[in-house]
Amino acid sequence: MHFAFTEDQAAITEAAREMLVESCTPTDLRRLLASDEAFDTARWATIREMGLLGICVPEDQGGLGLDTIDLIGIAEAAGYVALPEPLIDQAGLIAPLLASLGGPVERVLASEILAIGHPANPFVTDADSAAALLLDHQGEVHLVARDTVTLIRMESFDPFRRLFRVEWTPSNATRVAGDWGDIVQRGQVLIAAQLIGLGQRCVDLAVAYAKDRQQFGKPIGSYQAIKHLVATAQVAIEFARPVVQAAAAELPLDNLASRTRAAHAKLAAARAADLAARTAVQVHGAMGMTWEVDVHFFLKRAMALKTAWSTPAADTATVIERMTTAPTGPAMTFASEVAQAAG
Amino acid sequence: MNLEYTPDQRAFRQEVREWMEANVPREKLPSFDLTREGFEAHRDWERKLNEGRWGMVTWPEELGGRGLDLIRWLIFEEEYYRAQAPTRVNQNGIFLLGPTLMEFGTPAQKARFLPRMAAGDDIWAQAWSEPGAGSDLAGVRSTCTRDGDHYVLSGQKIWSSRAVFADWAFGLFREPGSERHKGMSLILFPLDAPGVTRRPIERMDGEQVFAEVFLDEVRVPVTDRLGGEGEGWKVCMATAGFERGLLLRSPARYQHAASKLIALYQANKDRLPASMAERVAQSWMDADAYALAIYAMCSRLAAGGTIGLESSTNKIFWSELDMALAQTALDILGPYAELRGAELPGEWLDYWVFALAGPIYAGSNEIQRNIIAERMLGLPKG
Lengths: 343, 382
Fold this sequence. Notes:
The structure holds two protein chains of two kinds. By secondary structure, chain A is of the alpha+beta class. Chain A is 53% helix and 11% strand. In chain A, the strands form three sheets. A four-stranded mixed beta sheet of chain A has the order 1-3-4-7, with helices on one face. In chain A, helix 9 runs antiparallel to helix 10 (256-284) and helix 10 (256-284) packs across helix 12 (312-325). Chain B is α+β, with helices and mostly antiparallel strands. Chain B has three domains: 7-89; 124-230, Butyryl-CoA Dehydrogenase, subunit A, domain 2, CATH 2.40.110.10; 249-376, Butyryl-CoA Dehydrogenase, subunit A, domain 3 (Up-down Bundle), CATH 1.20.140.10. Helix content of chain B is 48%, strand content 14%. Chain B starts with 6 loop residues before the first helix and ends in a 6-residue tail after the last helix. The chains are: A alpha+beta, B alpha+beta. Chains A and B meet through helix 7, strand 9, helix 8, helix 9 and helix 10 of A and helix 3, helix 7, helix 8, helix 9 and helix 11 of B.
């Protein structure tokens, strides 16, 4: 039992985080928007050069041979900067899926984008920049080239989320797998990690503004009314993060308790991000409602990710089902124990 | 990152489980905050625990412990709550003063106090707050006047949990004329020493959970000062870290309560709206989230880390989850919640009354939020 990252895990996360924080500032986001792009080609090249796309790909297929837990800190960093590029989807979902079914994982490693259309999500993100799409037909996975499908753009509140409805025709030739494996749980956990990062960014923005903004002759951050708001949001983040990390570590168990942990992780992270985002708006006062202040980038992403891969209502139902049918209590903290107790 | 127990850890769990099954009293002990008999019954239980060498498993063997790590302490606590063993009457000693002695005590002090503490021979109370020094603890006015190799203690302490029946107390006193955080010392004194008067304070439910302690020229040897002279604030803050952050409220406590809440919900769910399941689920998730955070914290401490500002985030989280959990139980019980004495509702009512104090003791949640905002997030002092 050791609930902590290794030095290697911490080092790779820190390197990725530094690169993301440096290259993806709110100023960069605004520059991208001004140029009508949702994609920074230079950063995407760096992401490829750093080997981040292959973290969850086995070594004999050209990757680093690691797992979701190794990507979790990077997903948090991607949330923290509201990264426009689909690093986490490519590295955490699409690459390992392709690797597991002997698909063309080298295309992802070469930084080609593949989009994913799973029934848990009504829209396909980044389908326009994708070379191919992984789509669902009756629970089976199909791989189709983009030029064989019709994309209908749906506009998101988050300007960096490029959403599409996809019209296409399945065939035996496009079918690549009989099921999606544990992709939903992976999706939930990686979304949850991004939500933690988004929440932390909102708290940090609120703190920075509260130190600067003066009212009644003092920085508003010196007043307890403001302090307590941000402290409450920070507490929510602190107690969502370990759940997300545990969910990532327990993912390979693929049992009732680990699936429920993924649901809990997403509920807790969404709640924390939601609270932090609303707190950031409140602390900024009227400025918080404007386009000029950066808070909205993170608020919009948090709002969008909250329902990606699962809805809070469905996650709550999962939790209720588990707590009323499987053992709970002091000796049942970890999914491995619940599995043993249930025989 | 490895979230599975080792075979040794599993064997340890089994050992604790078997001992608890063989030794935990079948009948619930009478309250230790109401009568001397109840208090002594709990002391007897502490003695029995010590016979099994379960008094405080993390302490070194020569001081009455087993020299185990914090992960095993968590496992011990999990089995302790699972077995519904009696509440630790010496929690102020073993969970607060004990680790402080371990960090600041002289070898002689450790040898003198810790084995007796582990054995339940000395039950301890905390004597920090004063009528004029609550959240603002640096406002303490009780004094320790040096007289050769003795201190003379005078003043008034309040909200001393367990002090009605306890044997010893650890208190915060200042040199006459000193101000605020300077000149304070942490001093251990027997509660039956000449010049000590205890006055029980009745809690809203009639239990004598705490006492006022009046000190009128109480003489104690200088060797019963813990830590350096004038360094009492630093020593106290270390104790407060243990109190808020880890030892006082192990996650097993809330996980056990959450399990009972789930059972209560299951027994009543036919007449409850679906929304009640969501509240129960929230309590269960929060208890598990707290457990995961503490496992992560203990893993970090095992690797050489120290308790930092998470003592403040932890304290807010456990006290608020406990209050919500208790409130949900009362709401499930509905009109039965107010009944005293009746077995099931009564137990939850007691639980609720105790939870109500959670956001106040061990440093109010408002103060913890200030600490988080100022020291963790860097907002300016008001």
